[in-house]
Specification:
Blueprint (H helix, E strand, L loop, with lengths): L1 E2 L2 E9 L4 H16 L6 E4 L3 H4 L19 H19 L5 E6 L2 E3 L3 H11 L6 E3 L11 E4 L2 E4 L15 E5 L3 H7 L7 H9 L5 E4 L4 E3 L7
Parallel strand pairs: 2-3, 2-4, 6-10
Antiparallel strand pairs: 1-2, 4-9, 5-11, 6-9, 7-8, 8-10
Length: about 220
């Protein structure tokens, strides 16, 4: 897929293990094709319940000593994303569009994304196409629908959250793989805490992708 002269390979994460998840993948790919996103590489993720996976490391930021663990689903998602990152890192494309199977593109999305990719600096690492929790994150407007998120020392995770759709540069993948080595917190927060301070992070706002099975806050 070529948008604004960027070579972007779409990659969808899905679960093949139950009828519910298989149907989600079918519905998702159908929607993506209708939205103009074709030749999607489909990565079968890890089904946590079937694998018997659970994370044991504690999430301590919000409630130190509370003993919170992220559970089966988020642990398996973390491991599934390790697979996705490694697949991306071994493909020849320069950029990748990550898709969750329940992502749904708004009408006119491509025009907005194309303009953002024309406006964004060529050395960008990560672009949120779908996002949430953007208020108060310190984004700097650099174009009509494009915001930059600089590292703010001493501020906890000052970046947008959510991972239903984003564009990532291949050059950023080694740092992502290096810094995503501890499954103790949800994937999007883990990126915000451990990886984004090393990357050039941007977001398209308002977002142009929603999440069908999990309505997102602003």
């Amino acid at each position: 897929m070529n948008i604004a002269n960027y070579d972007i390979q779409p990659i969808m994460l899905y679960l093949p293990d139950t009828e519910k998840w298989r149907q989600r993948a079918i519905d998702g790919e159908k929607h993506f094709n209708e939205a103009g996103i074709e030749n999607v590489i489909k990565i079968p993720g890890i089904y946590g319940e079937g694998f018997g996976i659970v994370g044991t490391h504690l999430y301590e930021y919000d409630n130190p000593g509370g003993g919170h663990q992220i559970g089966v689903a988020n642990t398996s998602l973390f491991l599934s994303m390790q697979i996705v990152y490694n697949v991306m890192n071994n493909l020849p494309n320069t950029h990748f569009m990550f898709l969750e199977d329940d992502s749904r593109f708004n009408d006119g999305w491509k025009k907005t994304v194309e303009q953002a990719l024309k406006d964004i600096p060529k050395d960008f690492d990560f672009l949120f196409v779908g996002s949430c929790c953007t208020e108060g994150r310190g984004g700097i407007r650099v174009a009509e629908n494009l915001y930059y998120y600089p590292t703010r020392r001493g501020v906890y995770a000052p970046y947008p959250l959510c991972g239903n759709c984003y564009i990532v540069a291949k050059k950023a993948l080694p740092k992502i793989l290096e810094t995503q080595r501890d499954a103790y917190v949800n994937v999007d927060i883990n990126l915000a805490v451990n990886t984004f301070p090393h990357l050039k992070v941007y977001a398209i706002l308002p977002r142009v992708v929603e999440q069908y099975n999990n309505p997102l806050p602003i």
